[in-house]
Amino acid sequence: MHDLPVNDSSDPVAYLCGLLGPGVVLIPVPKGEKSPKLRGWQKITAEAMGNPGYLDNLRNGNIAVLLGAPSGGICSIDMDYEGDVEPFLELNPGLRNSLRSKGRRGCNIWVKIDEGYPPPAILKTTGGNAWGEWRATGNITVIHGLHPQGMQYHIEHEAPPAVIRFEEITWPGDLRAPWIPDEENEEYSRDAELREKYGEPVFFGKGKGDEPYVKEVNQAYWAGLYGAENIALFEPDELTFYRYQPETGIYAPESADAIKQAVSCRMLTMSREIEALAALETFRDNATLNAIVAHLRGIIEKRGAFASKQRIVHLSNGVLAFEGHEAEFLPFSPAFLSRNRSPIPFEPDATCPRFLDELVCPAVHPEDAILLQKMAGLCLLGVNIIQKLLILDGLPGRGKSAYANVLQGLVGIQNVTQLRTQHLHERFELFKYLRRTLLVGVDVDADFLSSKGAPVIKGLVGGDWFDAEQKGGTGSFQMQGKFNILMTSNARLRVRLQGDVGAWRRRLLIVRYEAEKKPKEIGDFPDILLRTEGSGILNWALEGLALLFADIDATGNIRLTDRQHGMVDSLLAESDSLRHFLTARVVSAPGSDLTTDEIVRSYAHYCPEMGWEALAETVIARQLPSLMLEIFRTTKTHDIQRDGKNRRGFRDVAFKTEEE
User: Fold this and answer.
1) Average pLDDT, integer, range 592-620
2) What is the tens place of the pLDDT at every residue in 581-595?
3) Backbone angles phi, psi at 546, to 5 degrees
4) Residue 502 class from Cβ within 10 Å (0-12 exposed, 13-18 middle, 19+ buried)?
5) How far apart are CA 595 and CA 646, in angstroms?
């Protein structure tokens, strides 16, 4: 074994060029990483290898080989597991003396092919297990430096890449690859395992002269065939089919009618390919297709498929998987079971100076800028793991709505829907939240959290289970409240407490916009930011998510400052301002009395002292009798004497004196 030097005086670039031969193109990669940061690295040619500055750059980190045509046909066979290496070399003894390099596991076997090789491909076994990759034009393979997991890349067998024709490579018999044709079945061009599990595609009868004819379609076979040819699942709680979309990496809803059409086309194709099944074309009636779909429900059923969320963020060009506070960028995979993704691509070096300097930092307290960052990351995650909702309040024109619009664009507008507290207690409102991750109320009124349905919000973020019913649909299904919620308001909201102050205190986060109004507003500023700095804003939010994970791992929840706790306490106190006033300014006093007007006037002076907005008189009139009974055990009466007239009020109470 020859370990390539890292920090000593030897020259890894010269060593690799000598090993791989003239014409090889080496690509600089940051130390400890697998992906180049150099722009346009795919177009680098061998001419760059004569540039001293480029060569010096190569020596400062990891080194990768630009595979395929740019390097004269140098390709690599990347094998995931050590146990597969020796069997492969037994099939290909000519490759035993070829260059082999190793990172964390398995190895790369290097070959040189002048022409006639396929493009890159993922290699799996016929059972669907990972085997490795064929790496060629358009790929790189890191051969020197520090692996992201901490070990060194090294040369396992020191030799030049074997010169070979691609057709001379013998692949394992259980390998599935684009250039390996599927073996045909004896009769129906289908896999024997499928027929073993579900039976033959059709059942034959005997006609005149014992001539066989198609008597009946085997519905289970055709359901199984659809399941084998598509990555799909059926969520029974939602009564919905989902089919995996490899181009986006998400599971998208698929109607039963679309499935019937796909099965019908497949039956037609087979009827034309196999003479004995020509009559199959006539069996594609709606009753048969409905029966096949019914079988399919049971075959691909996966209850709660999207309920258990991993620590992943699904983006337009891949998936970021968090382990601890660190994230690894991975290609799409059906194993992630995603049905929501951000439309923003991941670009690790992207920044967002205008977003931070013009929208976030000037508008809020520095502590709250970090809180906004963490909550943006949580919204990207798509699951409310801290069971809190975010309120942005303050005077108009400070950027609250612009921030909310940017956040919705970052999450993906298809994953967002409007939060309407006035309808939350109605039968069908919750169904519209299906497949959404972010609920938004923009520029809501002060009583938004005081409506009849507002208390439901606590359950929507707190993990409670709800029955969601579709209008015009059949039945209902259970849905767990793990939604992220964002609301903006130009007024300070008042909460419908109903005696549950503790629960609201655990759920609320508040960011107050108190900066001066911007001298000039740009109407489409959120769209401009998403278009020009979308990937940078994404990186900002991802950093916030890593900070949030660190908070959770250390404390079990998001870290808040005393000031941020105080904002919530103040809002809850203001929401219960009449109770606070009565407790602070009124006492039991047998023989004394107060009129309702006297209490209202005193309360109206008390609220500005506390920095609160007073309740409307109609609200006071509704709340006051019950509070007076609860706190002072006195009921409303209509015969309190003032100026010789009867007034409404309460007996055995008085205002506190200064000494009290």
Assistant:
1) 91
2) 999 999 999 999 999
3) -60, -40
4) exposed
5) 10
* Residue type present at position 410: L
Q: Phi and psi dihedrals of 264, rounded to 5?
A: -60, -45
In angstroms, the CA 635 to CA 626 distance is 8
List, in order, residues 6 or more apart from 285 with CB less than 8 Å away: none
pLDDT in tens, 254-309: 999 999 999 999 999 888 876 667 788 899 999 999 999 999 999 999 988 888 66
The residue whose two tokens read 């507002």 is: 454
Cα separations in angstroms, 386 against 312, 321, 375, 381, 484? 16, 19, 10, 12, 9
Asked if 77 contacts 106 with a C-beta cutoff of 8 angstroms, the reply is no
Going from the N-terminus, what domains does the chain have, and what CATH number goes with each?
Answer: 12-176 (3.30.2250), 192-299 (no CATH), 353-571 (3.40.50), 576-655 (1.10.10.10)
- Give, as one character, the DSSP assignment of residue 359: I
Q: How does pLDDT run across 296-319, given as a tens digit for each residue?
A: 999 999 988 888 667 899 999 999
For 320, phi then psi, to 5°, come to -95, 120
Q: At what angle do helices 219-229 and 286-299 cross, to 10 degrees?
A: 60
- 8 A C-beta contact, residue 488 and residue 393: yes
pLDDT, position 206: 67
Strand blocks (E) in 10-103: 26-29, 62-66, 74-79, 100-102
